Amino acid sequence: MKSLVNRETEMRISGNKLDWLGKGIYFWAHDPRRALEWAGERPQSADSPGVVGGIIQLGRCLNLTERASIDAIRGAYLDLKHARKNANPPQAMPVNRKKARYLDNDVMETLHIIRDNEGLEPYDSIIGYFAEGAPIYRTAGLRHQNHLQICVRNPTNILGWFLPKMDDTIAW
Fold first, then answer.
1. Model pTM score
2. Residue 17 has pLDDT above 50, yes or no
């Protein structure tokens, strides 16, 4: 982590088909504690999990809390479904399985292909709300691991790195 903060190494773009927002560099917005929990769950970092913060300029951002963005993603889903149905031979749609977001990933990547084919500028980043974990109480809509996630597709929009303060205080 220190080598990243000191700019001795670079963060790699994830191309993992499990990633729900598609290819990019992923951040938990405002929640380094959740990021550390996630890092500790990964076998390759379970012995020494760590978290870095990013100073991010969102740029052209696909904001999944906005209706227009949701409509665009729905359109990409319909295009993907049509393309797979009409392929020779027809192809089955991918399926999301718990944290393995195969369908979401393909839909997001389809959206980027559509934008490129239409001559539209690519998104620099994507921000979305992810409901995760058990409900915080019976019948609750809030879940224990809910979070805002940022996927940076254009690494030049990460202006810098830092080691975040890891405490549970809430700044008002």
1. 0.85
2. yes
